[in-house]
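# step 3/5: fold
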Amino acid sequence: MAKTRTVQEEALKKQQAGHEPLSSEAAAIRMQSAARGFLFRCRVKHDANNEMSLLNINPFARSAAQDAAFGRLREIQLKRRSIQLLNYDEYLDAMRIAKEQLIDLEGQEMREIIQESINKWLNDHRDPDTGFFPPFPKAADGGSKYIVQPPPKLGFHVEEKKGKKEDKKEGKKKKAKGPPVPPHPVLPEEDPEKPPSCPKFFLRHVRECLELYTRNWHDKDNSAELTQKHDMEMLKSHLRPMVFEQIRLEVDETTRAILDKVKQKIVAELKAARKKQKGDAAKPEKKEAKKDDADEAAPPPKKKPKKLKDTSAQRTIESLYAELAKAGIIQAYPKRDFSEFVATDSFFGTNFEMDPVGLDPSMSQVKRLAMEYCVFPLVSDFVHEHAPFIKSVLLYGGSLNGKKLLVHAACRTAGATYINLSPEVTDGQYPGKQATKMLQMAFKIARVMAPSIVHVDGVEKLFVTDKKKLKTYGLKDKANRYKKPLLKEVQGIRPGDRVMFVGTSSSPQDSPGKPPALANFFNKRIYVPYPDHGCRSSLWRALIERHGGRVTDRFNLSTISHVSEGYSSGMIEQFCKAVLTEKRKRKVKSKPLVIDEFTTLIYDTKPVDPEVHQVLREWAKPKAVDPAAAQDPKAAKGGKKK
């Protein structure tokens, strides 16, 4: 099977490279040869085992007649299985009996509690003018589930959006008073004995699990109970919520029937009262009332917000997918994994979490954040429902530093559909207003084929407004024409869509604005730094072994890590590919690698400019506050000398 898989992968690579596909006859012959080869190998293996068993030299064949220990083991296994079946039958009978006991003994009390909660909710939400009760929730919406057991409040605070008028007023006030100076951050003292903290939005679930363990198992001693049979009290506690849910559904049905009858009675009473009022009222009073109603001008109806028209409503999903795949927007992402992103921990990890201004994140922190923001919300429904909603992530840093690798690894780990909207991919394909239609099609496919990751490489090009700068990119169309429709589509991502927008940028400083519009657009920003000394040491070892080399004691990792300072991860990989040719790989055992083979390439290649590195580091980081300026804002601006 492994050989068949390798043949299939080679055929797929040839097809992607542009080779002519196999004919039907050639494909059938190749499939037959693979199947017949597999069956023949199985037959030969079976015959070889039979022959060794016949000669009594098969080390894998054991019989109970010849091996007493093996026979005893088989007897114990069969006995254990029979006891497990008996215990399971006994458990099912006990479950049925316990359920009947709960319905007989506690069912009436549960019914009264549910009915009392429903009656209280109906009376609280009853219309005082007409006397109508509120519509009872449908069974598809949960019925009285959220009336009897209201959902718990979230552990984090969700800020409400303010109106445009309030934002303008606050902006005027801020302009009049001047920019506020934030106070100097006070760093908490480190406590080495303090356990690691849990995120607030998962703390409640951790506490519930801890309470469940302490309630059921903490003080329980089962050492004398060797049979390990079921516990009747625990079984009842497990069945009690199921019985409660069954009774709640029965109460919901009776409540709906009663509400229908009450509604019919109230409607009949209202009709009778209206007929009586019409008979008693005089005709002239009716005419005056009509005139007064005609004189009063009706208020103009409120304008509804415009909704984006779905231009692809009449097309099928298959046709949309075929068009985007033909244009190269929906792509088959390469088989990359997070293990390929070589990362090491940093000794400044805790200090970085408290004061992220002066330190770069370590590569392990970058990998962890990429998994938390781009993979967990798409894969886990629990994380998607309880964690803060994130719909856009920006990976920025130097070129050839592993940003695309993280995106491809996130796609493969989450099993997501990969949609590439980079300017190089969409350039010259959708002119004019067709760009908006293309973005609507892409995000529609992303929602239908969720989980999906929409990726834009070089996302800063969408925000550049300088015409001279746009010409340097060498594109046929202006990249910033996708900005407005893309912002609308990303803002339209809602919880439950399981769509993530990921942007990568090697020069985010090109985007205009202070603060940059690119930084404000994304919910989360992850800086991918250049590898430090420890990471470069691990990187050299991993890349040399990945490309067929071997690191021995003669290869000084510390020296080459120091020499390669200022080079990105991709540049180090290029050095390894250039040195480890097919000819050099064959001589690795007899002639081990030395650092002199790499240093010539390193010296011939220019490292990254330290100024570019500093600009990337300080692009989206919060600026440190001077303590003197925080206490005296006038001194920071530069007051007049007395």
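# step 4/5: annotate
Residues 153-162, 173-179, 294-299, 633-642 have pLDDT under 50 and may be disordered.
# step 5/5: archive (pending)
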